[in-house]
Design goal:
Length: about 140
Amino acid sequence: METWKLSVKVSELSDVIPYYFFSLVSSCLSLSTVLVIFSEGSNWGLPGIIVFSFYVVIPYLFFAVPVQVLFNKYPNKFNLVYLCLYVFFSLVAVFLYSSVLNFDFSMEVLTTKVYYVMSLSAALIFWFWDSVFLQRKRSAS
């Protein structure tokens, strides 16, 4: 690959990295806020939002961001197909993350309402912020 082509690729990537970051941070803070608001009997408040954000960022980084990078090749705001794919990957991510945190790889987590609510919430929030920050039509170049 020629050097100038590589520099063009790096330049294009450096233009969108802040948008990936804003999307990730917004998603983590939003999901953490939802978790704190709807957690039963806890009084976490702002410290809970901060703590939950650190737990939420890991599955978002490993599961949602790679899918987001793929979707950004074909930008389309608020695309329902993208939402469905985010839901699918969210179901997988929440299952694996829950299993690793609880040291239990049983299918019992699939029978809980919290699993589905958490997966759907995570997907909806990430899809929303992805559409706001990244899914823009690119100019013809």
